[in-house]
Amino acid sequence: MIYEMRVYRCLPGRLPALLNRFANITLKLWEKHGIKQAGFFTTLVGESNQELTYFLQWESLADREKKWNAFAADPEWHARRAETEKDGQIVANVSNQFLAPTAFSSVK
Q1: Stretch 24-37: mean pLDDT, rounded?
Q2: Residues 58/71, Cβ–Cβ less than 8 Å
Q3: What distance in Å separates the CA atoms of residue 64 and residue 14, rounded to the nearest whole number?
Q4: I want to staple 58 with a disulfide (CB 3.0 to 4.6 A). Which of 8, 15, 64, 100 is the partner?
């Protein structure tokens, strides 16, 4: 099992729009494509309170490539994303890392 950590840095004031998009659109589309989330977090104390950090769980990098590419190519995702950005761009940038649990991790 591998985990992907993704950090979305929002434009000022746009975090609520991003949270709404995940809650009402993205998670349903991920379910359609078999993408499993392992947790979502907003920044309580840190560099910026306009960030969303989340983790995805994958069987392998090949599993990730197959499912993520299918999601990214989904016409419904493109249409719904465009709807949510009619008032302007939401995310300034995204960073991600792929993580492997240690032998002593409570997460396997």
Answers
A1: 98
A2: no
A3: 28
A4: 64
